[in-house]
User: Fold this.
Amino acid sequence: MDLFAFFQEFNVNLLFKIPLLLLQFLFFIFTLILLNQTRALARIIHVNAKSASFFIRLLVLSYAVAVLSLFLISLVIL
Amino acid sequence: MPDVFTATHDAAPKDSIGMFSTFCQHPEGITLSDQEKNEHIILFLRRHILTTLPWVLTTILLAIAPPLLLLADTVVPESLPTIPGNYAFVLFSFYYLVILAYPIMSAITWFYNIGIITNLRVIDIDSHNILHQAVASTNLADIVDSEYSQKGIIASHFDYGDVFIQTEGIKPNFEFHATPKPAKVVNIIGDLLAGRVS
Assistant:
């Protein structure tokens, strides 16, 4: 295989696109860990909805959805 | 001779826990997963609200950094490299999502860093980061001593400090960091040990 020719044809955009998408995917996994941790902590101590326990879980869930949405949008537009 | 007045849990005034509650005596609306029937929560503690200031300020600084860079680019043209529109959108959005993760993570860590004192035991819930959580509990009978320390002008002005609870033998000691009203906390623990609070 002619490596020189391969790199000549190689789309330079991919050099940015693949790491960026990979980073976003890893970040999505991180948000899932965050979501799981919030659930685990809420199981140990139950604080009622008025005191933001529910709000924090909702916030983390929305955040995970936002990260996933950005990943999907990036897949489409990049 | 019958008791004229007996301090019971029901007679004690109850505080409802709010989002930013850091010190609550006889809190309402909070239960432990392994709470016993005769167990009442006497004190609910979190770190003082001022301890959230560093990450709030850091987040604000990081959030205003890109607009400042863009402003610099308008003052000094072509000081920033040109990026295609779709990449700029993704990078910009991704940057703000990463920035947003920091306050969310810090808020969760602050929210679930809780110290609880019940009529039966002391519980310390520590959430250091998203991968590490620790829950320690000890019976009141195992507590030997409790003390507190306040370091610095800010801590003494806003009345918060570290509470140390020493337990018997090889059992772990408990530390509630940056607790509001540490003197009162130590006083309540002392009263519990002496049997003055039920």
